[in-house]
């Protein structure tokens, strides 16, 4: 079994199962904070999937997308928590 | 030889990401889910990106992977702290079996000022354990 087959047939399905579990928490999540955490973990898992995908396809250009996704994850979490704090604050 | 090293690194990273997903599903409390996010998923992504950097064996790809690892390692604790603080203000309850809450009664409810004493103005303080009967009796006695 070569590295390419191993990554394609074992690693990527396991990461897909992880994404499904996180999406279940994202839909179910009892409070708003749970959904934001699930979104953050979802994008972090997406960075891992992009890394594995760039190995299997042999193209390092995909890592730029991973960098931008990391930026977007941080900015969205900061903005969501900021507005959640401001929503509850009464003057 | 290189492919074996890459396989081991990517497998470890995938296991950590899968464990963080299971922990996100199984943990009983919002704060425990935050701790799962900021530890396991960050380590898993770091291991996968180290495997990518070893596979390409190139200066530009290695520098990009290192920048992503550095960025994720820097921003994960900051975002975890921010969302934990916001969820504490939103009134997300702690788990029933959690042992202690160091911030109990120390945050003001409307101005979000952190104080060092708990019994200054007890009606304005954020207290997530007021549904518990014993603590309520204790506060009434005070």
Explain this structure to me?
The complex is a heterodimer of chains A (91) and B (142). Chain A is an all-alpha fold and 91 residues long. Chain A has three helices and no strands. Chain A has a single domain, classed as Helix Hairpins (Orthogonal Bundle), CATH 1.10.287. Helices cover 87% and strands 0% of the residues of chain A. The model of chain A has no long low-confidence stretch (mean pLDDT 90). By secondary structure, chain B is mainly α. Chain B has two domains: 89 residues, no CATH class; 42 residues, no CATH class. Chain B is elongated and about 65 Å long. Classes of the chains: A mainly alpha (91), B mainly alpha (142). Chain A: It is a multi-pass membrane protein. Chain A: Pfam families: MrpF_PhaF (PF04066). Chain A: One of its GO terms (molecular function) is sodium:proton antiporter activity. Chain A: InterPro entries: MrpF/PhaF-like (IPR007208).
Largest sheet of chain A: none
Number of domains of chain B: 2
Give the count of structural domains of chain A: 1
Main interface: chain pair and counts? A-B, 51 and 52 residues
Low-confidence stretches of chain B: 132-142
Shape of chain A: elongated
* Radius of gyration of chain A using CA atoms only: 16 Å
User: How would you describe the shape of chain B?
Assistant: elongated
> What fraction, in percent, of the residue positions of chain A are helical?
over 70%
Q: So what's the oligomer here?
A: heterodimer
